[in-house]
Design goal:
The complex is a heterodimer of chains A (293) and B (317). Chain A has a two-stranded antiparallel sheet with strand order 1-2. Chain A has 11 helices and 2 strands. The longest helix of chain A is centred in the first third of the chain and has 31 residues, at 2-32. Mean pLDDT of chain A is 86; it is low at 289-293. Chain A is globular. Chain A has 293 residues and is mainly alpha-helical. In chain A, helix 1 (2-32) runs antiparallel to helix 8, helix 1 crosses helix 9 and helix 6 (165-175) packs across helix 8. Chain A is 74% helix and 3% strand. Chain B has 317 residues and is mainly α. In chain B, 79% of the residues lie in helices and 3% in strands. The model of chain B has no long low-confidence stretch (mean pLDDT 87). The chains are: A mainly alpha (293), B mainly alpha (317). At the A-B interface, helix 3, helix 4, helix 9 and helix 11 of A face helix 5, helix 11 and helix 13 of B.
């Protein structure tokens, strides 16, 4: 029983990490129909910059975190302004957007290796090193912060896309670009905002993950993959879906580890992912959320 | 016009073959060594080119099939002491069967979701290559894979391996070309360009895509077996996701609808990192930037870019 509680707590924490990455992917896909294969890189850049700002330059935590997140947002804006906008004007195929983001992921990871080296970076945990005991199982205070913030972000995103004018405009611009233009929405600008939002979510995820997972130049791809899986489970365009998808993924991983050697974790997760894509093409929440908003 | 085009093409192919035959005589050992890898990458890339150009399928699983071929050869020759031909055959059978079994369900998916499913396949097999260490040697890999032999003649120099690898590559090119020209190839074109219209004519897109996936996997497996016999050592690190991405770059950078494009792409991914490595650790960043530039500026690949440029020039005259 103790094992199962401990595994579930670890699963919920990991699941929320996947959810944070998945929500960024879902937000970008929702706003631009681009599957962003460098979503994990947003997190890695933010985390490494923040760690360097704190350890190397002695910046306070909040400032370092803000700087890291700001860098991720700027990278998102840069990608949209410089590449995506041009490629859309040229009528590029959907695959080429995927390849573009793969190329950006490779470049950023190589640049991080060159400038920041191989060694992993860590950030201090929120709320210090305290831990909770829940039915004899251990949960760190930071993990609790991560879980609560991830839940908060999920609901804020949902509110943003449903209730605010800007969120509705961004959705309109992606669902029906021509219709949106006729009502006076600046579609290209909305897409830039979408990438800024993706960068913001990725950056926040990076800052929250790094006290738990040591981050170095090559974890970006692994993060993106898990985020992808979370987002797809949830139907890809729905941030709430990505959160539920991430949670499911984390719990399945953690509970299979109780029964099966942990090395087969990825085998099980990704086999399951393939089955879910085939059997539930619209994600676990159903509805045709992949096509519409 | 068509006549002239054909004779020009034959001239080009003839000149290419002449250069190909002369390279091992005059080229440096290092260049020949790289060209062996270019040949291996060409074989793997041809499969992906067929999938992408004819079927519109983005596959990120080629390193998996390549790994299956390499491990089959390694296991057959080192652990079982069988002749090397059996390793090739074993790899082809395993890869082809896996591609058929997995392709049947996942090729129903389209676009990004299909790409992700192949990526998931790649992740699963990377873990399996790592974990099934009684079969694959795990982290340590399998060493001591013998050089290939034809009768008493050992292919123990890069120049000799170069000849064999490229003969296999030419065979695969011929096969690709025939597939493109065949009835199945034409049906695939129809499916790619207008799937619904094609199925209304009784074409079964799924069955065609599965066949293409099997051919692509077999090419990957052959490339893997050749790789194993050339470097004499296989380990997990050779068949990860990064390798799948590099394989996918070959048809994308070269131009997925042309066979020459695949060679151009393979030359690109083998020679560019080598040339850039002279300037130190920064070369990986440059490689990424070049890749981005090609995807953004030349979506039809290097060959597409060359065609556009030559068309501009000839229309200017």
């Amino acid at each position: 029983m103790y094992l199962i509680t401990q595994a579930s707590l670890a699963g919920i924490t990991n699941g929320m990490v996947y959810a944070l990455i998945g929500m960024g992917l879902a937000a970008i896909f929702k706003g631009s129909r681009v599957v962003n294969a460098m979503q994990g890189e947003f997190s890695v850049v933010a985390a490494i910059l923040a760690a360097i700002a704190m350890a190397g330059m002695g910046a306070p935590y909040w400032l370092a975190a803000m700087a890291g997140i700001a860098a991720a947002v700027l990278i998102g804006v840069f990608i949209e302004l410089v590449f995506i906008r041009y490629m859309i004007r040229k009528g590029a195929s959907p695959e080429s957007f995927l390849l573009l983001t793969v190329g950006i992921a490779l470049t950023i990871s190589a640049a991080l290796l060159f400038f920041a080296g191989r060694s992993p970076f860590l950030l201090p945990p929120l709320g210090g090193e305290d831990v909770f005991l829940i039915m004899d199982a251990v949960l760190s205070l930071h993990a609790l912060w991560l879980i609560s913030l991830a839940i908060l972000i999920t609901f804020l995103l949902r509110l943003f896309f449903r209730k605010t004018v800007l969120g509705l405009r961004m959705m309109a611009a992606s669902i029906d670009a021509e219709g949106a233009i006729t009502t006076g929405i600046n579609v290209a600008l909305m897409r830039t905002y979408t990438f800024a939002l993706g960068g913001l979510l990725g950056g926040v995820a990076g800052i929250l993950i790094t006290p738990l997972v040591p981050v170095n130049y090559h974890v970006g791809l692994a993060l993106t993959l898990k985020g992808f899986a979370a987002a797809i489970l949830g139907g890809l365009t729905n941030p709430l879906g990505a959160a539920i998808g991430g949670l499911t993924l984390g719990l399945i991983e953690a509970l299979t580890v109780v029964a099966i050697p942990s090395a087969y974790k990825d085998v099980i997760t990704f086999t399951l992912l393939i089955f879910i894509m085939i059997l539930m093409p619209d994600g676990m929440l159903g509805r045709r959320s992949r096509k519409g908003g | 016009m068509i006549e002239r085009f054909n004779s020009q093409r034959w001239l080009l192919i003839g000149a290419g073959l002449l250069v190909w035959a002369l390279v091992p005589q005059f080229g440096e050992r290092h260049v020949v060594e790289l060209l062996v890898f270019t040949g291996i990458y060409t074989i793997a890339g041809l499969g992906l080119g067929l999938l992408l150009g004819q079927g519109g399928v983005v596959s990120l699983a080629q390193a998996t099939f390549c790994g299956l071929g390499a491990y089959s050869s390694a296991y057959a020759t080192v652990m079982l002491q069988w002749p090397s031909v059996s390793g090739f055959a074993l790899g082809v059978v395993i890869s082809g069967t896996l591609a058929a079994l997995v392709g049947w369900p996942i090729l129903r998916l389209t676009g990004y979701f299909l790409a992700l499913a192949t990526l998931a396949l790649s992740v699963i097999f990377t873990s399996l290559f790592f974990e099934l260490d009684w079969l694959t040697g795990g982290e340590l890999g399998i060493g001591g894979i013998p050089k290939l032999q034809i009768g008493e003649f050992s292919l123990n120099t890069p120049a000799r391996m170069y000849v064999l690898v490229w003969l296999v590559a030419f065979g695969c090119m011929l096969l690709s070309y025939n597939i493109k020209q065949s009835r199945a190839g034409l049906m695939l074109n129809a499916v790619r360009d207008a799937e619904e219209a094609a199925s209304s004519l009784g074409i079964k897109p799924l069955a065609l895509r599965v066949r293409l996936f099997v051919v692509s996997a077999v090419f990957g497996s052959l490339a893997g077996s050749l790789f194993a016999h050339h470097v004499n050592f296989v380990s997990v690190h050779s068949f990860g996701i990064e390798r799948s991405i590099v394989f996918l770059l070959i048809p994308v950078l070269g131009g997925s609808r042309s066979i020459i494009g695949v060679i151009a792409g393979a030359l690109f991914v083998t020679f560019l990192p080598d040339l850039l490595s002279g300037i130190g650790d920064f070369h990986q960043v440059l490689f990424g930037l070049v890749m981005i530039a090609i995807v953004v500026l030349a979506p039809a690949g290097i060959v597409g870019l060359a065609q556009t440029l030559s068309m501009r020039r000839s229309s200017g005259v």
